[in-house]
Amino acid sequence: MNFNSFALKISASALVMFIAGVISVLTACVSSSKAVSVSSINDSSRLPKIDMALWKYNAEDDVYYQVGLEYAANPADLKYETLGIFVPGSYFDGKDNEDGTYTVSISSKNKVSGYSAKTAPFVMPIQTPGYSALEAPVSYSHSVKQYTDAGFIFVYAGARGRDQGLPAGVTDFKAAIRYVRYNSNLLPGNEKRFFTYGMSGGGAQSAVIGATGDAPEYEQYLNAIGAVMDESDAVMGSMDWCPITGLNVADAAYEWELGVARIGLDSEKKAISDGLSKEFAHYINSLGLKDEKGNVLTLEQSEDGLYHAGSYYEYLKCVIESSLNNFLSDTKFPYNANEQKSALGQNIMVSEGNAPRGGIPSTPNFNARPGFAAEDMDGVKRDRRQKSNNIDLSGTYSSAEEYIAALNAKEKWVVYDKASNAARITSIEAFMRNVKQLQKDVGAFDDMNGTQPENTLFGFGNGKGVHFDSVMAKVLNDVDSSLASEYESDITKKDSFGTSMQERHNMYNPMYYLSPAYSGYKTSKVAKYWRIHAGIFQGDTAVSTELVYSLALKQYGNEVKSVDFTEVWGLYHTEAERSGTSTGNFIAWVNECLN
Q1: d(CA 449, CA 255)
Q2: What is the CA radius of gyration of the chain?
Q3: Is the peptide bond between 125 and the residue preceding it cis, with omega within 30 degrees of 0?
Q4: Which residues of the chain have pLDDT under 70?
């Protein structure tokens, strides 16, 4: 399969955008409805700047803030499309207006944690598990203090979610970033120092934002909501925990890795799983990915016919082994699996509806344990009975040898050397059978009934799901032609801007902008700094999901300065960290990038 054909030429995209723009203008001229012309939307003067006499002040935390700031002149939904800005008090000189507000001006003399009003970075959470909508804040939250105490300026933007269809969410976050820069003459902070962070669907959208800075495909969508068009939406850094991305091949990646752990499949589903596994191999072989030594990573046909061999296979095997060896190095025995995870402070992002209304989610400490994670809150359909042949890793282990024995309880697949405190595994398949948490049915993301959040994400703004996976459609042609026809019918549809399903795929696929296998390569401003962490035990997505785009980033060129890619042993779908807390480590990482 020629996956290069997935990437449409820029000239064709530009033509589609031009035609859509002409239609938009003509429609505005002949309609007496609320239609607004592109030229008037693009007039930044229609969007008020921040009123510096309307700041509020939280004396306990020493934070000035404003909420309810409209970042688009023609918003689709103000429940979501406003933002709040929270500024360390030292960066402003404030005068009390005696009515609960303050008039402020930038103070250049003070510093907070080494940052000044000229150097402070902006950080923005992408709190959208399952690609859910994110309500904008309407009040102050003490949870911002951990960021403002670090000298950061905290930008909390609401955004539309999957019910509005892509690219609504990323479009809104981009508009918010542009709005902050639109006010850079009024705000403290270095507008070039913008960092996003998120988990799950939020991690995916953080990754998309990081890869698509000023990408031309977003212009007509930004225009439509009245975003500031003469500012940049590129960011400096992207922190992505357990990102659910690469949706163009996510079903295939899932089956190539976890399909080997499935039991009791009927012949039709087995044929689909095997077909997807083979298609993933073709995809990997089309990318030209390389390891750190410059060797091309490919997959080769194995005895089972599913391409579980080759240099890419061996590289992923090493990633799994490194994760286990990091765990052995980090862990002091005796080790209590449940208590240790809780003590590490692994947080789970709060989805829409789980935070106090109008407040900022505080990312509470849910334990990162099997059977309870962010997917419980994001609307994702999972069958917890599908755990293949998983071993039980709960309880306390007195030594590394005892823990390794537990890993080998059902088959010997981990070989441990006590002298070096190092382990190796016999195969990826054994890892998948024994510890990877298989949770999704065949068609993990493009559900055959069209009921997963990703189906809704690729819908057309009415909250209904559609099929989007052309790889699945191809495989189904040989198994179930009627179902294949349903997929193909949906895949041919376009959104209200005339954007095809494939073009929409491209807009939410970091690889489209990061890999020379796609025509979108180097057409955007890619973030310089990346931190990509995942719990390696999770069954929400394949390890390859985050591995593939981390490899593409490492070979992107000098524009990308660093890529911190880590798979954390023993953790599931969470803000995975080897030690410490996710918030503390994120703050430390931003500081490291800037210093």
Answers
A1: 18
A2: 24
A3: no
A4: 1-45, 340-389
